[in-house]
Write a structure and sequence with these properties.
With about 140 residues, the chain is mostly helical. The protein is about 75% helix and about 0% strand. The chain has a domain of about 80 residues.
């Protein structure tokens, strides 16, 4: 994966002008793991954005807007490299297996954090009810 698209590629930062792009060689398992990790990060940013909206905190939206485009570019780049590498069904099985392991871990993480978030929200609500009840007692 070189990221080299010739004239189409725009500098991503001040130091990028005229600099030689980084290159990385990935075997099929590493490719799937990288795609899974990038997708995990993208999904986490989406959750952060959505939860932030629900709580009235726009920082999650700002993080998502700032970071998601770079992750999406990387996912597209890795997808292009996979396509350029040619159709090898045995290799694709390895890529998909590595990706699936990370996707399943992400799904477990979502369930765990959702349960934690719900528990914290319920505890906070119960505390507020207790404080409200204590204020009303004579």
């Amino acid at each position: 994966m070189t990221g080299d698209r010739g004239a189409e590629q725009r500098p991503r930062g001040e130091g990028a002008r005229g600099a030689r792009p980084y290159a990385i060689r990935l075997d099929a398992e590493a490719c799937g793991a990288l795609l899974g990790a990038l997708t995990w990060a993208l999904g986490a940013l989406a959750i952060l954005r959505d939860r932030g909206h629900a709580m009235g905190d726009e920082r999650g939206h700002e993080y998502h807007n700032r970071l998601a485009p770079a992750l999406e570019r990387l996912i597209t780049e890795v997808g292009g490299v996979r396509t350029a590498a040619g159709d090898d069904p045995a290799r694709e099985v390895i890529v998909e297996a590595a990706y699936t392991q990370l996707r399943e871990a992400f799904e477990a993480w979502i369930q765990l954090t959702a349960a934690d978030t719900a528990a914290v929200a319920i505890a906070q609500h119960l505390e507020e009810l207790e404080v409200h009840d204590a204020d009303e007692e004579p």
